[in-house]
Amino acid sequence: MQDRNFDDMAEKFSRNIYGTTKGRIRQAVLGQDLQELMKTLPQRPLRILDAGGGEGQMACELAALGHQVLLCDLSGEMIRRAQAAAIEKGVSDNMQFVHCPAQHIAEHLEAPVDLILFHAVIEWLAEPQQALAALTDCLVPGGAISLMFYNIHGLVMRHMILGNFGHVEAGVPKIKKSSLLPDHPLEPAQVYQWLEELGMQISGKTGVRVFHDYLRNRQQHKQDFDELLALEQRYCRQEPFVSLGRYIHVMAHKPILKDEL
């Protein structure tokens, strides 16, 4: 198995993910979470790593707030798009771009970072646990990681709603190799265990798209978007909805050891 490179599907990715109602919900929910998460970090311009940052939507927003953001991606085309977006939004002075896999970014960092964004990347990797370990090593003590991953429970629920019983019984295998559906949906308990084994302290969990993808009438995605978004934001941090999100956003902090005080 190899890590997924989106050079060949960058335009499709942009059109089908970022330019849709599901992308708008994702950005809104993550934006709320990050706003609260950053209150737990030093109140100064932060050093932020956007690992596998794609076109840089979130990175540009953070750079616009005055933070220093380094974005890396395996895809050279995604790096090009992120650079163009930074120039267009006037935030390129606060950003750096590195064309490399997320798990190799330590070679390009001058110092540990305060915050790592790792959004919708880990489910495309051949060795997700090792990548997560490599990234948490790049955090300062007291720093945080914002990790969003594709939830196997949400995938199962979606197929059951559609009546795809046989596909669920077969373990929901990926049907099309060229699909934008991730290669390796993750079990939430496994991801939480990985973080805990790395010594990280989980501080929050949010379901991303806890209702949107389950609506049978897709016209409601656009027609009733404002009401849908309000309900997503109302329930996304409550169980059982967290565990049924198509993605789960988990936030965790690296502890400060006594000899580091």
TrEMBL record:
<dbReference type="InterPro" id="IPR013216">
    <property type="entry name" value="Methyltransf_11"/>
</dbReference>
<comment type="similarity">
    <text>Belongs to the class I-like SAM-binding methyltransferase superfamily. CmoM family.</text>
</comment>
<dbReference type="GO" id="GO:0008757">
    <property type="term" value="F:S-adenosylmethionine-dependent methyltransferase activity"/>
</dbReference>
<protein>
    <recommendedName>
        <fullName>tRNA 5-carboxymethoxyuridine methyltransferase</fullName>
        <ecNumber>2.1.1.-</ecNumber>
    </recommendedName>
</protein>
<feature type="binding site">
    <location>
        <position position="73"/>
    </location>
    <ligand>
        <name>S-adenosyl-L-methionine</name>
    </ligand>
</feature>
<keyword id="KW-0808">Transferase</keyword>
<dbReference type="GO" id="GO:0006400">
    <property type="term" value="P:tRNA modification"/>
</dbReference>
<dbReference type="GO" id="GO:0032259">
    <property type="term" value="P:methylation"/>
</dbReference>
<comment type="function">
    <text>Catalyzes the methylation of 5-carboxymethoxyuridine (cmo5U) to form 5-methoxycarbonylmethoxyuridine (mcmo5U) at position 34 in tRNAs.</text>
</comment>
<feature type="domain" description="Methyltransferase type 11">
    <location>
        <begin position="49"/>
        <end position="145"/>
    </location>
</feature>
<dbReference type="GO" id="GO:0097697">
    <property type="term" value="F:tRNA (5-carboxymethoxyuridine(34)-5-O)-methyltransferase activity"/>
</dbReference>
<feature type="binding site">
    <location>
        <begin position="102"/>
        <end position="103"/>
    </location>
    <ligand>
        <name>S-adenosyl-L-methionine</name>
    </ligand>
</feature>
<keyword id="KW-0489">Methyltransferase</keyword>
<keyword id="KW-0819">tRNA processing</keyword>
<feature type="binding site">
    <location>
        <position position="26"/>
    </location>
    <ligand>
        <name>S-adenosyl-L-methionine</name>
    </ligand>
</feature>
<feature type="binding site">
    <location>
        <position position="119"/>
    </location>
    <ligand>
        <name>S-adenosyl-L-methionine</name>
    </ligand>
</feature>
<dbReference type="InterPro" id="IPR029063">
    <property type="entry name" value="SAM-dependent_MTases_sf"/>
</dbReference>
<dbReference type="InterPro" id="IPR033664">
    <property type="entry name" value="Cmo5U_methylTrfase"/>
</dbReference>
<feature type="binding site">
    <location>
        <begin position="52"/>
        <end position="53"/>
    </location>
    <ligand>
        <name>S-adenosyl-L-methionine</name>
    </ligand>
</feature>
<keyword id="KW-0949">S-adenosyl-L-methionine</keyword>
<dbReference type="Pfam" id="PF08241">
    <property type="entry name" value="Methyltransf_11"/>
</dbReference>
